Amino acid sequence: MQRRTRRRAAAAAAVLTASALTLGACGSSDEAGQGEVLNWYINPDGGGSDPAGGGQAQLAKQCTDASGGKYTIRVQVLPNSASDQRQQLLRRLAANDAGVDIMSIDPVFVAEFAEAGFLAKVPEQYAEEFVGDAVDPIVSSAMWKDDIYAAPFWANTQLLWYRKSMAEKAGLDMSKPVTWDQLIEAAKKDDKYISVQGRRYEGYMVWINALIEGGGGSILENPGADGAELKFGLDSEAGTKAAEIIQKVAKEGVGGPALGSTDETTSLDMFQNEQSAFMVNWPYVYAAMSGAEVPWLDDVAWARYPRTVEGEESRPPLGGIEMGVNQASTKQDAAWEAVKCLTSEESQAAYMIGTGNPAARKKVYDNAEVRKIFPMADLIRESLDAGAPRPLTQYYGDVSSGIQREYSPPSAVNPSTTPKQTTSLLQEVMKGDALL
Fold first, then answer.
1. What predicted TM-score, i.e. pTM, was given to this entire model?
2. For residues 4-29, b (16+ Cβ closer than 10 Å) or e, as one string?
3. CATH number of 159-315+395-431
4. What is the pLDDT of residue 14?
5. What is the DSSP letter of 20?
6. CATH 3.40.190.10 residue window(s) in the chain
């Protein structure tokens, strides 16, 4: 897997190097001077801080070299989990740390950071460049109260991965949209599992949100409101159906023997070890299975995320990374110029090829090399555009933590009580009458 990743990183470097002269905002010099030194805090993506490892560090070097000496981008790697990334950045931003210039941010934290005044607004001259060709949900996540605070870098979506032979054996017609109820019944017939993410962490929140959105509801009905005025949509028809699906996956045992401990990695392990016939997971799993030389890879297929209810389009999960600039940075002009280079179509194509993380820009999915590596490129783009962001609110940390707590473990979820209890808890938290 590591060798394959490095080969893709090398291919990505070639793509970006060949296109460097087209990145007008980044200059065209072969030898970049020091210029403004920009600190870019990145989420871990396998590349670390060494450009030879690929990923964001490689893009930093390429854009530095292409800047003609205007700036030098130095990469600082954040912790692994999104929650820990948020905490580290918040500590620095709250202290007005000018040593942070550019940040890779989980989309769910843009609203919180913007509301607190930690993010600089995207300058007007860059706005159309950053969002014009990006998929709709990642653009929504880059905005707060009608202003753009971040540049979409990459966007992520979950697909339904399955074994063709097992779906056929269970009598499931995968040429048509399938529901969670159908998957549960098919898994029971095959005596196999459905790989989902049920551990108490952000991945579980992703599942809960997608189920509710797929049922025509939303966790928050007025996400931009102030705390005590927030209205929650958990205790609704869509929220009840979502809880019923989680309960059924747990009760029927199709989520596996350790449903409350599963994350993306364990879900993939279950699928690769032939315990699961179906899996909901991000596109990186295809490269992972290819790299692991899974012998039955030809039996693997993909479809759009399962429907919550029959006749209602699914709303696939949305993930990814937005790129923001620190309001306290003294180098904002250079930082935005670097962001333009880092998030360009060429950079996003190179990053997708090198890491397997899907691009935010739609045109990238027409790239020949991208389509070769990702035969499901059109479905990824379709799923991204149809995706549902998690609640866009400045209180996201509290909302997510409260829901994760009350819905854990999945085996304890009760459609009659869990949505109501969670709503009551969150209302108390928003009023300042309860702590998480």
1. 0.90
2. ebbebbebbbebbeebbeebebbbee
3. 3.40.190.10
4. 43
5. G
6. 2-156+319-385, 159-315+395-431
